Amino acid sequence: MILTVTPNPSLDRTYEIPDLERGEVLRATGERVDPGGKGVNVSRAVAAAGHRTVAVMPLGGAPGALVAELLAGERIEVAPVPVAGATRSNIALAEPDGTLTKINAPGPRLTAPESWSLLAAVAAHSPSASWIACCGSLPRGLTPSWYGELVAQAHESGARIALDTSGPSLLSALSGRPDVVKPNTDELAEAVGRPLATVGDAVKAAEELRSLGAGAVLASLGADGQLLVSPAGTWFGSAAVAAERIRSNVGAGDASLAGFLAAGGEGPDALAAAVAHGAAAVRLPGSVMPTPSDLEPAAVLVTADVPLDRALTEQGSPR
């Protein structure tokens, strides 16, 4: 079972539009309403792959009730922590060339008792979890040290923990030695405080995160692929996706993490699963998560011969 923790879940509305024109009335060609949040998407991808998952999250108001209802429809066990504030609603505008414009609401402010209840809910389900995936931004009311507390709690229970967050929340949790961290290029650049122009730059940045406490670093490099830097070695994985097949990159990184964890969470085979899941996700609308039939493993290339000098298409820069 893979346990996910989403401190700031959302109700996500994605509209497919021909073109984004400011100040104009836009007519959508497609619309989806999905439960959102990075950990939520990991659970959705795990469930779509046929594995058991439990999703822990704070939920409040009508949007929170709808999130729980939608997840139950996807055969996901929800462990809700009731909160006074309403769960946030986000909007995404997807253009045919894959460009995505997102409007993310801040979400409710959690009280100290609600924060403790969230930690308690994770502790209650940790004993049966093979992995705990803690993902996304922290809501108002939780300090950056909250993820560090969660990492320490997970290790006390004997569970392995994967962390997908950024900024102070990521850095403050590294001393707790999370088993895997999953930054994208910009988040990796932000963590080390310098631009990343090549794959080699990303490797060096990942090694720095490992020196600070991360067990392994699974880095999403956008269209260039993914990088795994771990105690067992360093591998680079890629899968070309034709531009005309790209529909939305919402949740692609979350699908990648789900594929990685479901495949064991270590080594080149898990990296190949991560790349296959991410490539499949961008070919689907909104934040639809791929099923096994959507995967194209033959199109994935994983190598230990990392192309260090390759320039990154989407170069990372500190925010």
UniProtKB/TrEMBL annotation:
The record, for InterPro entries, names: 1-PFruKinase, PfkB_dom, Ribokinase-like, Tagatose/fructose_Pkinase
Q: Which of UniProt's keywords are assigned here?
A: ATP-binding, Kinase, Nucleotide-binding, Transferase
User: Which family does this protein fall into?
Assistant: Belongs to the carbohydrate kinase PfkB family.
Question: Carbohydrate kinase PfkB domain spans which residues?
Answer: 20-292
What protein is this chain from? Answer: 1-phosphofructokinase
Listed Gene3D superfamilies: 3.40.1190.20
Gene Ontology MF terms: 1-phosphofructokinase activity
Q: What is its EC number?
A: 2.7.1.56
Matching NCBIfam families, A to Z?
1-PFK, pfkB
